[in-house]
Write the structure tokens for this entry.
Amino acid sequence: MGSTIYYKTESDIEKIRESSLIVSKTLAEVGKSIKPGITTADLDKIAESYILSQGAKPAFKGYKGFPATLCVSVNAQVVHGIPGNYALKEGDIVSVDCGVVKDGYYGDSAYTFRVGKISEELANLLKVTKESLYKGINEAKEGNRMGDISSAIGGYAEEHKYGVVRELVGHGIGRHLHEAPDVPNYGKKGNGIKLQRGLVIAIEPMINMGKKEVKQENDGWTITAKDGKPSAHFEHTVAIGSGKAELLTSFEEIEKVEAAQF
Ligand code: MG
Ligand code: MG
């Protein structure tokens, strides 16, 4: 990604909102099918056909050569998992990351789903990771600095003795899937660029149950926790205005699907 920050107009944000809405609905569609036995490639097909039915395109497919619509990362896989013939098992957690482009504007969101019944310690990892995302979003307002978002996320996860992944970060988004600035999940309050109205960013904590270190698998994509312990990932695309940040993606539909399953 380049270093130029593109601030968005209201009409840009309207377009990003449209793509983001499709992303959120796609994740909800995928969520309906998450159960033991379904393969990650099946989930990818569901996502792709839904996105195309909305007149949009998957943003990840072909991005730097990525072969699929979704990144699907199971258990110790942190992010960038390639969908394939792995069949989900009861007790797994699965991060589904989705990007969409429509009319030249991008939306990006991720949600970590439970497969059937999961352990209490996994449920807690999901809860804290999702909460850390909202802690970050609470700091995403005009006049604050990037470090305020970062420290809110990282500080909260570390309070719970989890590992905060350093190598991968959130990002600006708009006319490109990944734009400046970086949105790290660790950092110091008061540091970093000043947040201004019109900044649109994807905030995406990646939190490990164990240590923060990660490695890349031989497929050239999948990032996995080095210690083999589970990892969770939640992401929203948000627009910074004068007050509270505006969520352009939403977990509302996904959470309804989850509530109906459990
Ligand atoms: Mg994403
Ligand atoms: Mg992202």
Observations:
- The pocket of magnesium ion (ligand 2) is lined by residues 108, 171, 202, 204, 235 (CB under 6 Å).
